[in-house]
Each structure stands twice: as C-alpha cells, then as structure tokens.
User: What shape does this take?
Amino acid sequence: NAGVMQNPRHLVRRRGQEARLRCSPMKGHSHVYWYRQLPEEGLKFMVYLQKENIIDESGMPKERFSAEFPKEGPSILRIQQVVRGDSAAYFCASSRHGTGDYEQYFGPGTRLTVT
Amino acid sequence: QQPVQSPQAVILREGEDAVINCSSSKALYSVHWYRQKHGEAPVFLMILLKGGEQKGHEKISASFNEKKQQSSLYLTASQLSYSGTYFCGTGKNDYKLSFGAGTTVTVRA
Assistant: This one.
C-alpha cells in the first residue's frame, strides 16, 4: 500500500541550474497538487494537475516554473535557472477526487538547496 | 487568504489537554487538519465539512463553527507522539487549500 512517493528527497543545485522534482501519486489517485514550504512557515499551494491537464497553476511563479502530469509516469515540477530564493521543501499531495471534502495525502517532500 | 492559527506554540506534559484554533476571514466549506513532524510529510488527521460531517482516523477531535468561520482541534490526554506542528487548511468547495502558519506542540514526559 504505497503512499505518495517523491524523489529525490534532497537536491542541491547551483544558481542557474535546473531542478526536476518527481511525484508519483497514491494508487487510484488521479489528482496531484504541489506545495512549497519555507522554513517555519505553512504550505503554499502552487499547482493542481490531473492526468495530462494543468487545472490551476495560480500559485506558481509565472517564470522559470512549470509542471506536468503525463499520461504515463510521475508528475514533474521543473524549476529552470534556480535562484537562492527557490530553496525550500516542495511537497506533492494526491487525492482521489478534486474537491474539498476529500483528504490530500502528502509525500515526504524534496528539499531543494540552491547554492 | 491564509487562515490564522493560535497559539503559535504550546508545551504540554503527557496527559494534559490543549486546544488549537484556526480562524478564517472568508466563508468556509471545509477545514482540514494535518500534523507534521520535523523533516517529514504532513499527515492527514481530519476533515470537517460545512453541515457537520467529519472524517478522520485519529483519536483527536475537532469542531467547526461555520458562523464564526473557525475550527478548533482538541488534543486530549496528550501523548508523546502528539508532538509536531499542526496545520489547518481551509477550503471552499474545491481542491485549493490555504494553510495556516502552524502551531508547534511539544509534549514532554
């Protein structure tokens, strides 16, 4: 009964490099959400995807950030030309349905450090 | 707009009780509660829905006052395992949750 899986767990990138974060939702879940968490802060919504569709990316910076959830394979959050301010923990969550009355299950997160 | 949680932190001895509050300035459809231990993923605790329905699987109770747009999480007879940061996530009738800044709970033996 695998939960939400994310990899890598830790990622170090130099300024200007690209970061790719992967998320495999729980079995039977077709709704994926990405959140960013800064130290000592809450979770900030970034993007909501279903298979092959971006439903809401209102929380994602317009530049350098992109997300996808292909028909086959994990969801990917891609950050191009990373800057120090991108350092954070990035959590992926999945749910069975995309409404507020269903729980979201979180993965262990990817901790991105930009040097 | 993110909900406001209070208190920011609380220290308890095993067996003591505590209440964590979550307030929103907007009308709510649902309130989700999660607990996160340091360096780990947030773990789902409970959902409270407008109309009184609750979904949860922990021995932790909560209430949802729709008129006041508030929710409270009750930690009763606290155990060491209750330590962590508790987040409330508030939502309208969709997927988008706004999370509070968290309440750090420390339970000591």
